[in-house]
Structure formats: structure tokens, C-alpha cells
């Protein structure tokens, strides 16, 4: 299951552009294909209230599915749909998610879980606050809840019950203590080691292996001229501007910046040259594989190991996310084991 899923009363954020689009889509039940520029075809999902799945006899509709599709791909409202190539996967993921929500809700009812009246009242007030006008609120109430505040309250209650069960079975159980994080750190030392690396810029000329002697001579001439200009630069910005103007490699669009490159992944000639340089220094012309390159070293990073204190916050977050994903997956499997899920 997706680790980012969280219900909460405000997951009923129906004032979003996605909800507005759903409200207006009453008649078509199939997705509309909308041509877009750049040869990208967009699919605009729509809904009419048609059942798409039954979970232990409870029907979920294409409106439920559409809301989840827009939650998975929130840019849909901005781009008038989702890319056609992504639509099947988004729909499949959304379908599995609404099935999971319904199974969790039914499990909460089976356990006899309840929501305190004051919490329900607060959630309803927060829901109303999302609408800039009473007219918009009434429109959604009419189109999505049959004009009934009782139906709306039942949806809010459902959302809160799902949230509470997930808190009990997933969130509360996925906490990772400092001791647990430390144990993982001690057991997996290689994950926190890093090798020697260089942060550098380049200006390159690429005549290629099939270049003639005349072409190589011309490339050397351009490289010599570039080296003269490069050695006159006094900063990262000046060298970068020159790289954007003269370089022929792909890094020219980033001011020639290679960011932090692991030494083991660099050509030996390049790595050896960088190792002999000081920060801010510009190299001679380096020739390898029929390429001509000029380097400027920004930083030499010695290999080492990140301490537990350095990685503790991010490690605990990562371990919690991993644990949460597994707990959610296990819960989904457990609930589906004896459930009857019929995709229509």
C-alpha cells in the first residue's frame, strides 16, 4: 500500500479543483481523451455514480474512484486530466486504495469503534470552512450527498474511523526508538560509509573516436583558447559562464557543474588530475577517449563514515516509513483474506 495515504476528516477536501471537476461530470461515465501539445495525450476521468467494486456487498462508485485518482495525481486538475500512459496504473492504484479504505472502515465497525460527538462536530465545522461561500457548500451537498447533512456526517464519521484504526494498527506501531535506529546503524555500517569524491566543473570538446587528424587539430585549437580563458576566471560563476558558452558536453547547461562525483565512477585520468589539484585550481587540457577536457576543482571530499548523530533523524524517519509500509501491507492482506471484493 502507498505509504503516503492518510485519511482524516479533511481528506474530504471537496473544494479542490478535482472535486469541482467531479461535481460537473454527471453524464459521461467513460474517460475522455483530450489531445495536448507536445504529443502528450491526456485522459480526463469522469464519473456518474456507477458502481466499480463491491466490498463485502458494499458498492463503491466511480466517484469514489475518481476522488482517489485525483489524490494520487493532484496535477490532473491543472493539466485537464492524466497522461494516457499513466492512466491505467493510476486507476489500478486508486481502485486498490478505495477497497482498502472500505475494508478498514468495516473492520472499525466490527471492533465497535466510535467517534465522540464533540469531535464529529469539530470535523463538520472544519469541513464547512473549506468553502468560500454557502452556495458552493450547498452545491456539493446537493450533488454528492443527496442534499442531506446526515449523509455528509456519515462520510465524515467514516473518514475519522478509518483514521483511528490506521493510527492504532499502523501509525502507533511504526514508531522507531533511538535504540532501534542505533541497532540498525551498528548492524549496517556500509550504508553510512561514503567514498572519496570531487565537486568540479568541466569544459569539454568532443571530436569523437572517428575524428580525422584535421578535426582533432581544430578541437585542440579550441581547447587551447578555452584554457586561456578558463585560467583567467576567478570564480565558480565565471568558469560556469564560460562552460555554458564553450563546452560541448551535457554539463554545460549546469555551468559545467558535476556536483559531487564518486572517484570510483570517474575515468582514471580525470580522477588522478582532480586529486592533484587544489580547490579553485584549473587543470591543463586532459585528453582521454578522444575527448579534451578542462577541469576546475570546487571541493575534494575525503571518504569516511557518517556518524550516528548525523544520520539519526533521517534514519529514524526512513525506518518508520519502511515499517509503516509493511504494517499497512500486512493489514491489507489480513483484511482481504476473508473478504469478498468484486471489481465490476
Keywords:
344 residues, alpha+beta, Triger factor/SurA peptide-binding fold, Chitinase A, domain 3, 2 domains, 49% helix
Structural features, described:
The protein is elongated. The chain is α+β, with helices and mostly antiparallel strands and 344 residues long. Helices cover 49% and strands 16% of the residues. It has a four-stranded antiparallel β-sheet with strand order 8-7-10-9. A three-stranded antiparallel β-sheet has the order 1-2-5, with no helix packed on it. It has two domains: 194 residues, Triger factor/SurA peptide-binding fold (Orthogonal Bundle); 107 residues, Chitinase A, domain 3. The chain is built from eleven helices and twelve strands.
Amino acid at each position: 500500500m502507498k505509504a503516503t495515504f492518510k485519511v482524516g476528516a479533511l481528506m474530504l477536501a471537496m473544494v479542490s479543483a478535482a472535486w469541482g471537476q467531479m461535481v460537473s461530470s454527471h453524464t459521461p461515465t467513460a474517460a475522455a481523451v483530450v489531445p495536448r501539445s507536445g504529443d502528450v495525450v491526456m485522459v480526463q476521468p469522469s464519473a456518474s455514480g456507477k458502481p466499480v467494486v463491491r466490498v463485502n456487498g458494499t458498492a463503491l462508485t466511480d466517484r469514489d474512484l475518481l476522488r482517489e485518482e485525483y489524490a494520487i495525481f493532484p496535477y490532473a486538475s491543472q493539466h485537464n486530466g492524466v497522461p494516457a500512459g499513466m492512466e491505467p496504473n493510476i486507476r489500478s492504484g486508486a481502485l486498490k486504495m478505495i477497497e482498502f479504505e472500505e475494508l478498514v472502515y468495516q473492520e472499525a465497525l466490527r471492533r465497535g469503534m466510535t467517534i465522540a460527538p464533540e469531535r464529529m462536530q469539530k470535523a463538520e465545522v472544519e469541513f464547512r470552512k473549506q468553502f468560500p461561500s454557502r452556495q458552493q457548500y450547498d452545491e456539493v451537498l446537493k450533488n454528492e450527498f443527496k442534499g442531506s447533512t446526515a449523509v455528509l456526517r456519515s462520510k465524515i464519521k467514516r473518514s475519522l474511523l478509518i483514521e483511528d484504526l490506521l493510527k492504532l494498527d499502523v501509525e502507533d506501531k511504526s514508531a522507531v526508538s533511538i535504540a532501534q535506529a542505533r541497532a540498525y546503524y551498528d548492524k549496517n555500517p556500509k550504508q553510512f560509509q561514503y567514498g572519496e569524491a570531487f565537486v568540479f566543473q568541466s569544459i569539454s570538446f568532443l571530436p569523437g573516436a572517428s575524428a580525422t587528424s584535421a578535426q582533432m587539430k581544430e578541437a585542440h585549437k579550441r581547447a587551447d583558447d578555452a584554457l586561456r580563458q578558463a585560467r583567467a576566471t576567478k570564480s565558480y560563476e565565471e568558469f560556469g559562464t564560460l562552460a555554458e558558452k564553450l563546452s560541448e558536453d551535457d554539463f554545460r547547461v549546469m555551468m559545467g557543474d558535476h556536483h559531487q562525483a564518486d572517484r570510483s565512477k570517474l575515468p582514471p585520468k580525470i580522477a588522478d588530475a582532480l586529486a592533484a589539484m587544489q580547490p579553485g585550481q584549473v587543470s591543463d587540457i586532459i585528453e582521454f577517449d578522444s575527448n579534451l577536457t578542462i577541469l576546475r576543482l570546487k571541493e575534494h571530499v575525503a571518504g569516511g563514515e557518517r556518524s550516528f548523530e548525523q544520520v539519526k533523524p533521517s534514519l529514524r524517519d526512513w525506518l518508520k516509513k519502511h515499517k509503516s509500509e509493511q504494517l499497512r501491507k500486512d493489514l491489507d492482506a489480513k483484511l482481504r483474506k476473508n473478504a469478498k471484493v468484486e471489481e465490476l
